[in-house]
Known about the structure:
The protein is an all-alpha fold. The chain has one domain (21-152). It has helices spanning 3-15, 19-42, 46-54, 61-84, 88-111, 133-152. The longest helix is centred in the first third of the chain and has 24 residues, at 19-42. The mean pLDDT is 85. Keywords: Membrane, Transmembrane, Transmembrane helix.
Amino acid sequence: MTVEDHQKQQVAGARRLSVSEIVSALCRFGLAAVWIAAGFSKLGKTVAESQAIAAYEIFTPEWSLFLAKIIGPVEIAGGVILLLGIFIRQSAKVSSWVLILFIVGIAQAWYRGLVIDCGCFGQTEITDGGMSYAWTILRDVAFLAMSVWLVYRPFTRFALHP
């Protein structure tokens, strides 16, 4: 093998992504899309979001309104930070904690027999049994797994900050 062939082989190998990097990229860009979509679905819907938050019967009406005002922009900001690759590990840690809080909130509402709309991706029509609590929790557990993966294996290619 010539030196030129060896250099070509090294360059080709450097361009390939490992399975770990592919999973990390899917987690990073997938979570960014989820947070951005969830945030945009809440913009301009402060009253509806406040009612969705109040339905959990955890917060006072004042706190529900405050959270409804900030949750959409905060979710969008978190998604953009992941998309740009700024502080990926730290963003993934925040994402993990937020998802844990969402899971606990939904689980306690389910346990208490509350019929609510989680408000996760904007308002949906509430049926007689309410939302699918198990499905919503499983979805959030999947997002939590993606966040935890990024804490340990951040995908830093195409990132503004490694």
